[in-house]
Write a structure and sequence with these properties.
The complex is a heterodimer of chains A (390) and B (230). Chain A has two domains: 217 residues, 3-Layer(aba) Sandwich (Rossmann fold); 159 residues, P-loop containing nucleotide triphosphate hydrolases (Rossmann fold, 3-Layer(aba) Sandwich), CATH 3.40.50.300. Chain A is built from 13 helices and 16 strands. The longest helix of chain A has 18 residues. In chain B, 35% of the residues lie in helices and 27% in strands. In chain B, the strands form two sheets. In chain B, strands 6-5-4-7-8-3-9-10-11-12 form a ten-stranded mixed β-sheet, with helices on both faces. In chain B, strands 1-2 form a two-stranded antiparallel sheet. Chain B is α/β, with parallel strands linked by helices. In chain B, β4, α3 and β5 form a beta-alpha-beta unit. The chains are: A alpha/beta (390), B alpha/beta (230). At the A-B interface, α3 and α6 of A face α4 and α6 of B.
């Protein structure tokens, strides 16, 4: 099995892409689709496999720079990484790559290189195409579809996995349908949330013929360095006064800012989290009752909620419950953060849940925000719940 | 929501250009199309629009230098350049707030992503509702990709211009392409700015905005101004 390295996708595909199988990232024009194939390739190579990248619209040295911008140093991969250069021939440039396509406008020339590369990969490996659409533009739609069939057969023969990046420009309906439904064992749709402009990106499994794939959509962001990150645009952090919300936001965030006065949040905390393939923007509310009118404004459109409680102050728990009501958070995934567990008199998570009179299914995570203890465990728990809903 | 070109006589004759309009600008080499494209972008900046310039012939820095050369005080937070040149010259320049690098003019997927990113930034983060996209030039893109490929790309992005209530300007070199290419591409545009050579120099007119084309005007480019005569 070859893992794609895309957050959540391997779970949805029941572990990844089996050897001999094929996958296409079917991207909406204008959406960052190419990085998906790059990330899958680097993830596989990092796991000890060999990989080949078929460059069709970018010079090889530039390809290496692109990988480097995402934090993937191809020099470290040694001879487990190779490029099939199907670009230099197009612009009449010299190439020093191991595999050079003499005529990038002829699929036979490309097929020969792909076959050679597959034969040279001794162990099962992964072949990633930078842009199937560019090949289609240069070689023709039907010619490319025929060639894909041939490449996929070689992949099966030589025990490799094939991954294609494809941008769904307005080709003929037959071609688009063929790419989406026929030519590969699996299709991952990489789409954009479009209004007047594309203001969000998501991916989801359209099909995978080796498993009962989970058909959920995941919002994502592309980070440099980092690559594809499953993205939660808004997570709310609320709780009573002095429960440690701002400290929690700062402990969790790679960058954060608080609007406060004399150490008390008077408007909001904002932080950005980047953790284990997931990115999220988190917004902390003030805790004092006099700020309740603005809490509603801050809390709209959240996808999940942290309720931060001071584990030593049971008298504030009712206020915590009330804040969930003010933020209209009921129905959203909620994780209770039992903060200040290092303080004398801290109640256990079980005791806190009992005193809150809330469903037992709500996780209560012990934490010490001042040291960062338990904050990422709480984050991972909430992310799992948000993704489960999505 | 309407736009002006920043070419005074033409603006007077054609009136306000409605949002979502895509315009082809076609003319002979060294007739000042680069300057005119930049003047149109600059007019947008004066009108509090955002401007996205896709540069396929000049590095992005050169485009910014054009504005500096004429001492134009441009708001840097409202201008974005998709640079399709620098990396083809072998320079590994990183993206900046104002300049995003595409791999090459072949990389239409990458160019499309960069355009979308600027549009998203201006719309979602800057809350700007009027944006001008200027692709200078389609002829370079057509040198690397066939007509059908470029047509598909434009089909998507002229649609995006309409969806975003933006203004699209697409520059084409006259004489570089056969008649079929021009006729095919024309289908995608709502109007044209035509430039031709005359005994005096060059002339310009606008087509498709009014029932009849505007008259031809002799023009001179004086720094960041275009002066029409006649």
């Amino acid at each position: 099995m070859i893992e794609t390295g895309i957050p959540k996708l391997d779970d949805y595909l029941n572990g990844g892409v089996p050897i001999g199988k094929t996958l296409v990232y079917y991207a909406y024009p204008g959406v960052e689709g190419t990085v998906f194939g790059m990330q899958s390739l680097c993830h596989s190579i990092s796991n000890g496999m060999s990989g080949v990248y078929v460059a069709s619209s970018t010079e090889p040295h530039r390809i290496r720079e692109q990988f480097s911008e995402f934090g993937w140093d191809t020099d470290e991969y040694g001879d487990r990484f190779a490029i099939i250069d199907a670009f230099s021939g197009l612009i009449g440039a010299d190439s020093h790559e191991r595999y050079v396509v003499a005529d990038p406008e002829d699929t036979r020339s490309l097929t020969q290189c792909v076959k050679n590369a597959m034969e040279d990969l001794r162990e099962p490996g992964v072949i990633v195409f930078e842009s199937l659409s560019t090949i289609m533009d240069l070689c023709g739609e039907s010619e490319t579809l025929d060639a894909i069939e041939e490449w996929n057969q070689y992949a099966m023969l030589y025990d490799h996995a094939m991954i294609y990046n494809f941008t769904a420009w307005p080709y003929s309906d037959d071609t688009l349908l063929s790419i989406k439904e026929d030519v590969c064992d699996s299709t991952i749709f990489v789409g954009g949330i479009a209004g007047n402009v594309i203001f969000g990106q998501y991916f989801g499994v359209l099909k995978a013929n080796w498993t009962d794939a989970v058909r959920k959509c995941v919002l994502f962001k592309v980070l440099k360095p980092g690559g594809v990150r499953a993205y939660i645009p808004k997570i709310l952090v609320t709780g009573p006064f002095d429960a440690g919300k701002s400290t929690f936001v700062h402990a969790l965030s790679t960058r954060a800012v608080s609007v406060d006065r004399l150490g008390t949040t008077i408007a909001l905390d904002h932080g950005h989290v980047d953790h284990k393939g997931f990115a999220a923007d988190i917004f902390g509310t003030p805790g004092q009752a006099r700020f309740d009118p603005i809490i509603k404004l801050i809390s709209g459109e959240a996808m999940g909620v942290f309720l931060v409680l001071d584990s030593t102050r049971a008298e504030d728990f009712a206020r915590g419950r009330q804040m969930l009501e003010i933020t209209r958070s009921f129905g959203l995934p909620v994780v209770i953060v039992a903060n200040k567990q290092d303080c004398d008199g801290a109640l256990t998570p079980e005791d806190i849940l009992g005193q809150l009179d809330m469903p037992e299914t709500i996780p209560v995570m012990p934490a010490v925000a001042t040291t960062g203890e338990g904050v990422f465990e709480a984050f991972e728990t909430l992310i799992d719940m948000v993704m489960e809903v999505g | 929501m309407t736009y002006k070109l920043g070419i005074s006589r033409l603006d007077e004759l054609i009136g306000d250009i409605k949002s979502g309009t895509n315009i082809m600008m076609i003319g002979p080499p060294i007739s000042g199309k680069d300057d005119i494209a930049n003047i149109i972008a600059y007019q947008g900046l004066l009108d509090a629009n955002a401007a996205v310039i896709v540069s396929t012939r000049e590095p992005g820095n050169n485009v910014l230098e054009w504005f500096e050369r004429y001492n134009l005080d441009i708001p840097m937070d409202r201008i974005g350049i998709v640079d399709c040149v620098t990396r083809t010259l072998g320079f590994g320049a990183p993206d900046t707030d104002n300049i995003k690098m595409a791999s090459s003019p072949v990389d239409l997927t990458g160019i499309g992503v960069k355009i979308s990113q600027f549009f998203e930034h201006f719309w979602m983060e800057m809350h700007l509702r009027e944006t001008r996209l200027c692709i200078n030039s389609l002829s370079t893109i057509l040198m690397y990709s066939n007509l059908q490929t470029v047509f598909r790309f434009l089909h998507v992005f002229t649609g995006r211009i309409k969806a975003a209530n933006a203004l699209g300007i697409y520059v084409i070199e006259e004489g570089m392409h056969d008649e079929k290419t021009i006729v095919t591409l024309k289908q995608l545009f709502d109007g044209m700015i035509e430039i031709r050579e005359s005994e005096e120099g060059y002339q310009i007119r606008a087509v498709g905005f009014t029932p009849k084309p505007t008259p031809w005007f002799d023009y001179e480019i004086d720094g960041a101004n275009i002066v029409l005569r006649g």
